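stage 2 :: seqdesign
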């Protein structure tokens, strides 16, 4: 019985030249179909030869690649989405198409994952050798016996976290990707090394065991480059793992840490947050020029804040709720879902467009929750105003006041009018890009500094600041206290 849905047959082209394309794939490519033969890319050792055979065979078939989409696309995610849309569209028109992809359809092929998720087509997979098959042969290892994990070079930093290896890292398609892999180890041991696998199965094949610092300096990496890491002397994110283990030890061995609960730690979380904020602000507008002690203080305070997050995660793990990995995973998934202009095919060319998209996505996640849902009532009031203003601005309801603050009056003792005036001022500041909480805190810092100056000057001049009259104190605050000679 003929299929009721359009058919997409995915053919694997293998890892190198046409001689490594499996017979079943060769046969499928040679079998006439009502639709075109679509190659994800012609930039593959077997693709050019196979495309030429098909185009100039007896039936001069319609053969195309999607390389033009790579040239015009803004990201891999948008390119893959466009390719899948085109493949499905051709299948709908012709009834069936053949879609050829590098390597194996089942290994590191994002477009096939996207096609598998569709219910509007019938998907058939014709296997092909993957780059992994050649890698095992060149490395002379059994991946199952060795327990090798397969990672993506573009995600190495988090996929390899805590894993000592062995690791086969694919998608190392540029020296920039290899550099990111290299830098994922902050302090690699002198003995750390890896095996570069480049153009396997081709005349210029490279299999080179190189020091870790040389993995991005040995070959001109491309889409046929991968990396094998036999072992990591210091796993990625080792310090994070040590911090988790340290807090877990404290929970077992320290009487104070053992007594803590989520509730008892809340005030410490708030205190550490404020201390981290202050340390970050001390870095100033040019952090790269900040004094070493200021940088060290910011590092310390951020570490204290991280300790609070890890402590709550360790408690939650004990309670069977979640752990730090779950916290990190949910955070990453949220960032990905709320940045479709980076990880998807949504366009957002300005910061304002990003914010609008962000709010629409959040609204879709919590339908009917309301525009201001999720803003904690316990936030500091001015900080809460700033967040409310950002929310309102995202839907065109931001501050539109025009009167100057000097023109606003309210009766003495009228708390509501005073609050409305403060709210108006805070909203207007937020709308102009000034954070009212930060502005007020810095003004308070300047006020405190001025008070200290007056106190110190008064002490040097032998003047009793507290014993002076209110008028004198105000005058001293404005002009400075008199010196000893002024006192006669």
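stage 2 :: out
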């Amino acid at each position: 019985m003929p299929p009721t849905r359009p058919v997409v047959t995915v053919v694997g082209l293998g890892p190198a030249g046409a001689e490594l394309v499996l017979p079943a794939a060769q046969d499928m490519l040679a079998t006439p179909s009502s639709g075109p033969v679509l190659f994800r890319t012609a930039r593959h050792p077997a693709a050019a030869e196979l495309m030429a055979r098909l185009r100039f065979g007896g039936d001069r078939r319609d053969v195309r690649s999607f390389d033009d989409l790579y040239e015009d696309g803004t990201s891999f995610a948008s390119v893959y989405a466009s390719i899948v849309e085109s493949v499905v569209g051709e299948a709908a028109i012709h009834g069936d198409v053949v879609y050829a992809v590098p390597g194996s359809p089942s290994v590191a092929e994002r477009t096939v994952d996207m096609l598998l998720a569709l219910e509007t087509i019938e998907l058939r997979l014709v296997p092909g050798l993957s780059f992994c098959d050649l890698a095992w042969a060149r490395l002379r290892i059994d991946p199952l016996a060795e327990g090798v994990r397969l990672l993506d070079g573009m995600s190495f930093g988090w996929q390899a976290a805590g894993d000592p290896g062995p690791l086969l890292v694919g998608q190392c398609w540029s020296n920039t990707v290899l550099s990111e892999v290299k830098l994922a180890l902050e302090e690699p041991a002198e003995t750390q090394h890896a095996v570069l696998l480049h153009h396997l199965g081709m005349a210029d094949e490279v299999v080179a065991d190189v020091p870790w610092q040389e993995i991005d300096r040995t070959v001109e990496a491309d889409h046929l480059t991968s990396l094998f890491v036999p072992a990591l002397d210091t796993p990625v994110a080792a310090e994070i793992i040590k911090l988790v283990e340290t807090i877990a030890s404290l929970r077992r061995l320290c009487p104070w840490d053992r007594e803590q609960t989520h509730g008892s730690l809340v005030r410490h979380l708030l205190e550490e947050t404020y201390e981290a904020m202050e340390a970050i602000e001390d870095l100033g507008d040019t952090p790269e020029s900040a004094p070493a002690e200021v940088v060290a203080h910011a590092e310390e305070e951020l570490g204290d804040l991280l300790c609070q997050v890890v402590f709550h995660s360790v408690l939650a793990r004990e309670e069977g709720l979640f752990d730090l990995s779950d916290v990190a995973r949910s955070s990453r998934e949220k960032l990905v879902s709320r940045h479709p202009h980076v990880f998807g095919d949504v366009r957002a060319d300005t910061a304002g467009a990003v914010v609008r998209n962000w709010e629409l996505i959040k609204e879709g996640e919590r339908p009917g929750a309301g525009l201001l849902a999720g803003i904690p009532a316990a936030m500091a009031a001015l900080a809460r105003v700033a967040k409310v203003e950002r929310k309102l601005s995202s839907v065109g309801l931001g501050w539109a006041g025009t009167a100057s603050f000097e023109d606003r009056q309210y009766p003495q003792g009228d708390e509501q009018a005073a609050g409305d005036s403060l709210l108006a001022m805070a909203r207007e500041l937020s709308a102009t890009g000034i954070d009212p909480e930060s502005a007020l805190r810095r003004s308070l810092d300047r006020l405190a500094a001025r008070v200290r100056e007056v106190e110190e000057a008064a002490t040097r001049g032998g003047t009793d600041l507290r014993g002076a009259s209110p008028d004198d104190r105000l005058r001293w605050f404005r002009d400075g206290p008199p010196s000893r000679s002024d006192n006669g």
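stage 3 :: structure notes
- Residues 292-318 form the longest helix (27 residues).
- The chain has five domains: 7-129, 134-229, 238-340, 348-434, 438-479.
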